[in-house]
User: Which sequence fits this backbone?
């Protein structure tokens, strides 16, 4: 499992992605796939929310590619580990090494009805 993780990190350039990958289309992506961090939970962990029911996959794929979107997610995971978790640890005065994720499915007609949503959810959850 450790070897697989190292291989994955190399494939996604995870060690340098925060410096090397610029996601200029972020504002357009957030318009069509609302998501982001919002405060902390009762234990001090950062809260990340994705509004799956508001995803417009057709417009999203007009402003970015699936590959770039996944790289963006990897970059955001790295930023969470490098910046957000240490900051939350300082504020909470204890080690914070996890985050809370909320997948808001209000408005989703069914993951199986959208190949894009199914692919996106399974791909992101596998990261």
Assistant:
């Amino acid at each position: 499992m450790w070897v697989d993780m190292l291989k994955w990190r190399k494939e996604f350039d995870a060690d340098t992605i925060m410096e090397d990958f610029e996601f200029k289309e972020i504002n357009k992506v957030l318009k069509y796939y609302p998501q982001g961090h919002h405060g902390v939970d009762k234990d001090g962990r950062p809260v990340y929310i994705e509004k799956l029911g508001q995803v417009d996959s057709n417009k999203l794929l007009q402003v970015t590619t699936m590959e770039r979107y996944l790289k963006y997610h990897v970059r955001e995971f790295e930023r969470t580990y490098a910046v957000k978790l240490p900051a939350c640890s300082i504020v909470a005065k204890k080690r914070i090494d996890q985050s809370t994720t909320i997948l808001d499915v209000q408005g989703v007609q069914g993951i199986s009805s959208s190949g894009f949503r199914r692919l996106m959810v399974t791909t992101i959850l596998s990261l």
Remarks:
- The longest helix spans residues 66-92.
- Helices lie at 2-11, 17-20, 26-32, 57-63, 66-92, 115-126.
- The mean pLDDT is 88.
